[in-house]
Amino acid sequence: MTDTGAAAVLDDIDARPGSTASLLRTLIGLYLRPLGGWISTADLVALAVDLGIPAAQARTGITRLKQKGLLLAERRDAPGYRLDPGAVAMLERGDRRIFEMREMTDADAWCLVSFSIPESARSVRHQLRRRLQWIGAGAVSAALLICPGHLQGEVEETVAGLGARDWVTLFRGAHPVVEGSVADAAARWWDLAALRAEHLAFQRSLETLPSAPFAAYVHLLDRWRVLPYVDPGLPPAMLPADWPGRRSVDEFARLSAELDDAAHAHVRAVVAAS
């Protein structure tokens, strides 16, 4: 991924699920690569309309995604867009998170991120905390974050992308030793109440999925996509007994399996008819 493209796309981590920007990004992330990396403008707008996005609003949203570094305008037999090569690595990381959400066991290793960033680079410090917490890191203290060991590669990519490598030290560690229980420590390091609310909101949202398989599948992915990032998949010892995360994972897997083939068939039919 190019530095410019990576920064542009990754800075849009706050796109609200259900918004035009979010739905279009989900649509593009799902289907442009299976289609060979290019789609006509007319087909992309038609698919957006099938998601409930008005055509004019879809065209404006597509233009903004081009500005974000996700798409490049390219005319073939008709005006259209192809994926910016710099966005492919980001989409592949998203695939691993969205479709292969990992849950830790009590024996898994941790990655500790210690940093000392000068005041002259405080914007980098802010972005480092923000992006690491976006990928599931918890805050042990103002300058020490903790995340599952299997996320170390993403941590290293984030640090390098911000040019912060000289200010950051990573440690691999086993089970944290804390005063009191690790469950109490986890509740301090992560906002478990907010994560619980995210899971319950996702589960409630499943009752309002569209009836058509294509729209249902894209909306399902769009509503789910935040959870595999902000929820690090903490081990059982760190979670309350009634933690709703497992139900979210199971419901996503069930509905995804039910809708995937029909949704892909719809996309192929729209593209073939043009």
Order of helices and strands: HHEHHEEHEHEEHEHHHHH
State the end-to-end distance: 31 Å
Spatial strand arrangement across the major sheet: 5-6-4-7
Shape: globular
Helical content class: 40-55%
Main sheet properties: 4 strands, antiparallel
How many DSSP E strands? Answer: 7
CA gyration radius, whole angstroms: 20 Å
The secondary-structure class comes to: alpha+beta
Strand content: 5-15%
Count of alpha and pi helical runs: 12
Poorly predicted sequence stretches spanning 5 or more consecutive residues: 1-12
- Mean pLDDT value: 91
Give an overview in words:
By secondary structure, the protein is of the alpha+beta class. It is 53% helix and 11% strand. It has a four-stranded antiparallel beta sheet with strand order 5-6-4-7, sandwiched between helices. Strands 1-3-2 form a three-stranded antiparallel beta sheet. β2 and β3 form a beta hairpin. α2 crosses α10 (213-224) and α9 crosses α12 (245-273). The model is unreliable at 1-12 (pLDDT under 50).
Task: Chart the SSEs and their pairings.
Blueprint lengths: L2 H8 L9 H12 L6 E3 H10 L4 H14 L2 E3 L6 E4 L4 H12 L10 E6 L6 H13 L3 E4 L2 E5 L3 H10 L6 E6 L8 H8 L2 H14 L7 H12 L2 H4 L14 H29 L1
Antiparallel strand pairs: 1-3, 2-3, 4-6, 4-7, 5-6
Helix pairs in contact: 2-4, 2-10, 9-12, 10-12
Describe the structure concisely for a colleague.
The chain has helices at residues 3-10, 20-31, 41-50, 55-68, 88-99, 122-134, 152-161, 182-189, 192-205, 213-224, 227-230, 245-273; strands at 38-40, 71-73, 80-83, 110-115, 138-141, 144-148, 168-173.
